[in-house]
Amino acid sequence: MEIFYIVLIGIVGVGAGIVVTSTVIKKSIQAKSQKIIEAAKSEGEVAKKNNMLEAKENFIKLRSEHDNYVNQRKMGLQKLENRLTQREAHLNNRNEEIRKMLQEIDESKEALEGKRLHLIQQEKELEKSHQKQVDQLEAISGLSAEAAKAELIDAIKAEAKTDAMVYINEMVEEAKITANLAAKKIVIEAIQRTATETAIENAVSVFNIENDDIKGRIIGREGRNIRALEAATGIEIIVDDTPEAIILSGFDPVRREIARLSLHKLVSDGRIHPARIEEVVAKTHKQIEEEIMEIGKRTAIDLGIHGMHHELLRYVGKMKYRSSYGQNLLQHSREVANLCATMAAELGLDPKLAKRAGLLHDIGKVPDNEPELPHALHGMKIAEKFKEKPEVCNAIGSHHDEIEMTTLISPIVQVCDAISGARPGARREVVEAYINRLKDLENRALSFPGVMKTYAIQAGRELRVIVGADKISDEEANNISFELSKQIQEEMTYPGQIKITVIRETRSISYAK
């Protein structure tokens, strides 16, 4: 029992010690917490002061910037106000000047009106005086004013016509001296610097074969092969007694070329039957179309022409298979293009544009369908369709005078076309048309009064006219030469130029007996 009390007393003592200890710890913790709170408050105050100082500085800075901006705006507005004030003063001055000018104009109008009325009065007085003088002259001369005027006009006309003929001849001679040399120089230089081949196309092509046995294979059983070939190509194939040759006849050179190449492929391959013929002709047709396009592109590249529509290039390629009066159309167009470029350069014009117009001037001769228009107008329509320049279109349409020339390139194309066609050996002219042209020249000269004989010489490039010396004077002979050249130029079509020579010869004949 005593032990129990002793232990109980010990436990109570320990508990009291623990309570005392926890109280001390609690007080210590509270003291530290108070110190931390006070330190935090102190730091917060410092931070608050710093933030306030920084905010004040930013506010002062922003206010300074705002003041500067406001000052600048005020200065700008002040300058604008000054300018407006000056302009207002200027306008006021102008208004005052205009008002004075209007006042002066009104005064001038009044003065002019007075002068006009005065002039009208004077004009009436002069008219009366003139009429009085006319009446006196009619009474003295015994002729009315109209009769005297008609007689005077007839006399003046006769005198003026003679003077005009003399003056025209002098002008023509002077122009020949000054301009003819320069023109000849330009034309000759253009011709000398441009050389091209003379090519003649016919309506038939000859296909050469190694032996006559191949003719039977081409004809086929009962002629089926040759009929299939003619139906596929549209060309008449003539197999006759001509040794080692077959004639291909047709007006279209492209079709003849397709038939010739197809025959070459069939004979080389050895398989000749209707199905094979149709296959080979179709492939050859496609090959020719590609070749036409390639020829057009190569021609444009050779001439230095760029940016041309692909359809126009195809038309240019087709020119290789067309001819005009026996002259290959592509060679003719290339020659005209080079001549145009040379002449344009000599005259200070654009040679590239002239070359383009020269190349395209005859595209109306190679249409995909047969047009009703002349080839010059049809070619102009094609060029307009594919967005060629107006200068080029006008040159194409006017090179045979179907439309009016509006640019300087147009007469150059016309002249170069005539040069290329008139070159010896370039074209084959129908004999009948040639003879008719010579007869027409002689008949035109014979239609003039006083003409006795006419001779067209030098292949129609010179016309000699012999007049009677007793019927025609020298002045009338000059008049006949001028009028005849003008009539031929306006009404006839011919290559190059025609020289008209009027001969008036006086012969004195006597006999010694």
| Beta-strand residue fraction | 5-15%
How large is the count of helical segments? 14
Q: Structural class, please?
A: mainly alpha
* Largest sheet: number of strands, sense, barrel closure: 3 strands, antiparallel
Kindly state the mean pLDDT as a whole number? 80
Radius of gyration: 53 Å
Q: What's the total count of β strands?
A: 8
Task: Briefly say what this structure is.
With 513 residues, the protein is mainly α. Helices cover 70% and strands 7% of the residues.
General description of the model:
It is built from 14 helices and eight strands. It has helices at residues 2-141, 145-192, 213-219, 224-233, 253-269, 274-303, 310-318, 329-346, 351-360, 375-385, 390-398, 409-422, 431-446, 474-491; strands spanning 204-208, 236-238, 245-249, 323-324, 327-328, 451-457, 462-467, 499-504. The strands form three sheets. Strands 1-3-2 form a three-stranded antiparallel β-sheet, with helices on one face. The protein has a three-stranded mixed β-sheet with strand order 6-7-8, with helices on one face. The model is unreliable at 197-201 (pLDDT under 50). It is mostly helical. α14 links the parallel β7 and β8 (499-504). It is flat and about 210 Å long.
